[in-house]
Every structure is written in C-alpha cells, then in structure tokens.
Amino acid sequence: MHSDPKGSRAGGPGSGAKASGSGPSVSTGSASKGTSDAAADLARARKQLLDGGTRNRRLDAPSLRQALVDLHEFWLTTKGAELGIKPDSGFAIVAVGGLARRELLPYSDLDLILLHDDLEPRIVSDVADKLWYPLWDAHIKLDHSVRTVPQALQVAAADMTASLGMLEARHIAGDVELSNLLIGGVRRQWRNGIRGRFDELIEQTRGRWARSGEIAHRAEPDLKSGRGGLRDVQLLDALSIAQLTDGMPGLGPESPGGGLAFAHGRLLDVRTELHRVAGRARDQLRAQDADEIGAALRIGDRFDLARVLSDSARTISYSVDVGLRTAGNSLPRRGLSRLRRVPVRRPLDEGVVEHGGEVVLARDARPNKDPGLIMRVAAASAQTGMPMSASTLNRLSDSAPELREPWPKEALNDLLVLLGSGRKAIAAIEALDRTGLWGRLIPEWGAVRDLPPRDAVHTWTVDRHLVETAAYASALTTRVARPDLLVLGALIHDIGKGRGGDHSVVGADLAIQIGNRLGLWPSDVALLTAMVRYHLLLPETATRRDLDDPATVQTVVVALGADTILLELLHALAEADSLATGPGVWGDWKASLIRELVRRCRLVMAGESLPSPDPLDPAHIELASRGGVHVDIAPTEGLHTFVVTVIAPDTPGLLSDAAGVLALHSLRVLSASLGSHEGSAINSFDVAPLFGAPPQAGLLRQEIIRAQAGELDLVAVLDAKERDARAEAVEDDGEESAVPVLYAQAPPRVLWFDDNEPGQVVLELRAEDRLGLLCRLASAIEQQGSDIRWARVSTLGSSVVDSFCIDLAGADSRAVREDLERAILAVVPAPEPPKPPEKPEGT
C-alpha cells in the first residue's frame, strides 16, 4: 500500500491533512519518555514471545501469530486512548496487512493508517508523531500513512496494490464510524470499478508469478508472492469482495491439500517459522533452513516439508485458476458482446457439453449411474483445451461411482485421448488430482503425489514429472507401433518411487495391477510392465557401457527378450523421460548414443512381423455369398460401443463410402477389419457414437447405397461438418474458446512393407485422428487408382495405426508409393508449423 515517508510529519507535505480550524480535544504535548518506554515494553514483549514465551514454553506457529496480534492491538488501543483517539474524536487507527488479517508474523511490518476527519494539520501532526515515533524508537518496522477518508479512497482508486491492501482494512481504535467509512468506501469502490480494473489485476498477478515462480516446483520458493502462495489467497478474497466469486472453489478437507483453508494455514505456519529461524522478515524458503522448519512444525525433514508445500501450493493454485475463471465469466460484457445470445450448450461427448467456455455435464447426465463420465469429461477438456468447471468436478467427486475392474474399453480409450493431448492434458489431470478424482482412478498415484525429487537435475515433483513425460511422449507416438502403451508407460514409469527399494522393480509390480485394472490384454500388461522395469536400461547402457563390445548389445537384447516393439517403446520413452526431467538432460550426445545402441540391438533381434488381415467370420462369409448390400448394428459389452458390419459388392469406393457414412452420423471408428470374399466386401467397424444412440441400420444402408450411386459427396459433407464445428467454437467477439484444430502432437508417418503376394504392398499409417479420417484415407488411395485388398484399422485414443494392403497391378511401385504417400499426408493432421521469428521494430 502507499505510505508516507518515514520521516515526514503529519500535516506536512504528503500528509493529506487540510487546515480546517480546531478539532476535538486530544493530547498534543511532545513525545515523553513514558511513551517511548511503552513502545519499548512492546518490543520486549515481542522478543519474549519469539524467545519462547512464558514459562519457557515455545508457542506453536498459529498461537504465536495470535499472541502477536493481541499484543499489538493492546498496545495500539492503549496508546490511542492515551492520545485521545477515542470514539467521536475524529481519529481512527486502521490496520492493513498482516495485523488486519490477524496473520501478524514475527518480523512483519506493522501496517497502519491514521485516519482523521479533515482536522487541523497541527493537531494531526502532533497525534501522528506521538503514535509513530515511539514505534520507530523501539525499532519496530512500521509502514504508515495519515489520510482523510477521501484521500485514502483516491489512493485506492489510483494504485492497485494500495487498493488490494485497503480491502483487508480492519478497525483497531478510535472513531469506528470513520473506519467504517473507509472500509465500506474502499469495498464499494472496488466492486463498482472491477470491470475496468480486472485486466490490470490479471496482468499484475501474472507478472508476480513470472517473477516469483511456482512454489510447488521451486527449490527455494517464495511463500508470499509465488504462484500458489499467500498473495494468491488474498487475491481470492479480493475477488470475493467484488462479488465475482464465493472465494472458495469447493475443495473439501478430503481433497489433496486438505482444502483451501488448510493449505492457507500450512503456508502461514511455514512462513511464521521461516521468520523465527531467520531472525528477520523473509519470504523465500532457503534449503539450509528447511530441515529446522520441518522439525519445528513436526512435518519431518526438508523433503517432507517440500512435499507439504507442493501440496498446499497446488491446492491454492487450482483455487485461483477457478476463481479467476469464474470472475472473468461473471463480469458484464462490453460493447457489442452485450448483445450476443445466451451461450449455447454445445455437445462434446455423451453426457458432456461446452457451456460458457467450460466443460460441463449435460442436463440429462447421470453421474451416479455413469462411471465412465469422469474420463469422458477429462478427455473432452484436454481435446478442446477448455477447463472443466469446478461445479462439474465437485458433482463428479460427490456422485460418480468407481469404475468397475477391468475398466470398460470406452474408459480406457478416453484415458488414451487425455494422455495423447500433449500439454493440454496437464491442466486437466491437475484439476482431477486437486479434486480427488485422479487418485480414485489411479490409487497408486498417492505415493508419488507432490513427492520432491532427490537430485537437483529434476525440475518437477515426481507426479508432475510423470505427467510431463506423457505430454512429451504424445509427440513421439508415430515413432512406435503401440502409441497407447507409450503414453501409458510414460505416465507410470516412475510410479514405484516413494516406496523404498529399486523404483523400477517396485514400479513393474505396480504396473501389473494398473494394467489389469485398465483392462489391457495380458500380452500388453507384460509389455507395459517391461517398459516400467527397463525404462532406464537404454540411457544407462548407452552412456555408461562400451557400445563396441558385443556383450553390451547382447545384454540389452536378452533383457528385452529380443522384442523389437519393446525396444522402440523404450527408445521413445527414454527421450520423453529425459525431456521431462529438466533442461539439458536430453541432448545430441545422449540421443546419438541411444540411437546407435538401438540400431545395433535391431541387427541382433529378429525382424519385425508383417501386418496381416484378420480372419473373416463364417457367418459373414455366408451372408456375402447371397449378394446385395447388408448392414447390421450389434451392441458390445461396452455401454457406448457397437459393431457395424457392412457387406456389399466389392466395388471401388465402398470403403470410403461406408466409413464416410459412419462419420457423418457421428460414429467414431475405434477399429475395423476389412476383407473380401468371392466379389463381396466384408467390412466390420467397432464404433462409438459421439453422443446418443447409433442410427438405425436401415438408414446407414440407404445412405451407403446413395453414396455408391454418386448422390452423396461424403468428403465434401465431412469438410463442411468440420468447418461448422470450428465455427461454433468461436465466440461472437472473435475470441476462440475451443476450436478443434487439425494440428497434431506427433508428425504422421507412413511405413511400407512388401506383402507375401506378388504385386502387393502393405502401407502402414501412424497418425492422429480427425473427423472421417478413414473415409478420407480410403478416398485418397482410391483416387490414385489403387485397389485396397484388405485393411486393419486401430484407433488408440487420439492415435491411429491403419494398415492397407494395396494391389499395384504391375504399376511402377516406386512412383505409386510416392503418389500415395503425398495423397495420404495431405489428409492427416500434422504438427503446427513453427512460427517465424518476430522482426525487430524498425526493420
């Protein structure tokens, strides 16, 4: 807050006092020895409290703060009465800062305002001198000002920091009506002006975060100004006073961090002990003080203290995110945006909609009867980049039942969509974690939550490192044949930490129970377990062993069971793990060594298996023998998945037409097996409706026939549908709230294999999904004049691994491959191109 210079006299320059004749009778003599002695007694009492209190008993942190508040209030009220600062005197002593909040720390400044009712400058000056000088003489740090109510309101209107400080003002002594005029006026002024000051408040807050960093992930955090610190709690109070939020996002004591009030108290206790240990005012927790503070608070050593701080700071950070978002949505609109219609509820998934820039539950959602709803909400949040509303998370936390084990396929797929969303997944997982939902989904997470790293090279806590690794792995999914296992392995590769023993061995055992819970096939559980067990094998071997020694390569090959899929998964995981550890951990030297080790291991291992078609169902073969077009829809064990079987004459364009009709009706293809028998195509699609029930089989059959007759341009219709989806996500004032862009996390990759049949090749595409991708791929292949003999399609979260067997029919193999690859890459999502560097001004 704004304060007058320490040496200035009330009534002099900068005091704000005005000549107005005689005021009420107050003591105006010079400062006496008695008044100085009284302040000296205050200083001695403060010292006694800090040295251990009465009867040599050390006060705990909350008791010490309360004792300091009581001590200073008693001195100020007594001194005020001595100076004539009484009711109806025209003077009031008002506290701001720690004393106002009743959070006075051992070496905090005493923040005071001497209010007066426009009294004579000489009288104001004398009273101020007798109030301030004893405190200065006793070496008590003082931040002071002398003002009338209009002057204080003017300062609050011009200075954001002063305004935030005065919002906490509390009457201490004197004319309570005068204090109420200031407190009520500042709060009314804040509420009335918040719309015009909100952007400045956000800018100031983000600037503070940029300067001070995140408490949860900083070796020596700033407890006051860091992100997740005490200033952020005061920010929430300011938003509540502005009537934009209720000040609390609904985090209860059972959530990690114990709720906002508990997290706030923890930070206050740590900062109190920091003052006591340092012997002076300090906000930054130094590493050398952490053990002593942890012991004083009975938390443990410095690592235990770091974990408590991370937990508390992340709770506060989440609360502030919710508070700022809620406040922003509560502000009245400006200009033309005031005229726009009420925000619509745009469907995102079954039971999930967008409303007001947030992911919320649909009106007909039944979270108490839909265990998979948690994952659908989280996946929609990560895909769109929109936050989940706090009320939705609270409702899910209160109502959603546990997912049955093993998980339904839909829930696993939604988890893969979440993990495949890159950095957008981090905020979604953090929100789930702060509300207790993430730990419900992955109970093993509790041991690594907020677990501090044991070496300085790690930037993040262990749990955040795991999420960061998954985010980096999402950009490497097209390098591997199993993108689903890559992101899952990245998420849990260090899950064994915090339990004692070799974390790779402990984690491998945990991976078995996690994989079984998620519903993975036994062979996939074995792969996931091996990833966790050997996630350090490649980097440690490459950087510590002689790669020219055949025994080095043989050791790796034996450990991995000569499994090339596992080898490529570990290669990608090693890169993602290093990138998520900290700056400089992954570089050209380490990358080249691991790449060379992997190359030599591949030479020793058996060659990769060739993609092959799935066997045909005998019932489908019999139906194909009858000829004609047949479409069947059958439910599966999942609540929201179905099998669509299309049997029709094997004519050019059938695959793209069938896939396009499914996409047109919002049926997402999860997997497909495409074959033929005696001139009839037999195509089976595992699909999941985006929302609602699937259409009738007869409608799908009718539209496939129309498409085959050339009456329906499916690619054009899908393009229009995609454009409409993007347009609906753009607000009327031009700001994008949730635009589903076509940019991918990982670059697409096309692999070629020679088939066992002469003249045929197998094309394998690894890419990220988009609306109607299978239709677009089949159309691109067919437009090049190539005949698809069979196909296998897999959608793993947001990634696709599609294999097509193509008959080249004696054509120039190399030229056909180049043309096909160009056509395919033109319809699949690719990473966003790098932005050109900004030109310096004046060029």
TrEMBL record:
This is Bifunctional uridylyltransferase/uridylyl-removing enzyme. Belongs to the GlnD family. Residues 16-25 have a biased composition (Low complexity). Modifies, by uridylylation and deuridylylation, the PII regulatory proteins (GlnB and homologs), in response to the nitrogen status of the cell that GlnD senses through the glutamine level. Under low glutamine levels, catalyzes the conversion of the PII proteins and UTP to PII-UMP and PPi, while under higher glutamine levels, GlnD hydrolyzes PII-UMP to PII and UMP (deuridylylation). Thus, controls uridylylation state and activity of the PII proteins, and plays an important role in the regulation of nitrogen metabolism. Residues 1-38 are annotated as: Disordered. Pfam families: GlnD_UR_UTase, HD. It comes from Rhodococcus navarretei. It catalyses: [protein-PII]-uridylyl-L-tyrosine + H2O = [protein-PII]-L-tyrosine + UMP + H(+); [protein-PII]-L-tyrosine + UTP = [protein-PII]-uridylyl-L-tyrosine + diphosphate. Has four distinct domains: an N-terminal nucleotidyltransferase (NT) domain responsible for UTase activity, a central HD domain that encodes UR activity, and two C-terminal ACT domains that seem to have a role in glutamine sensing. One of its GO terms (molecular function) is [protein-PII] uridylyltransferase activity.
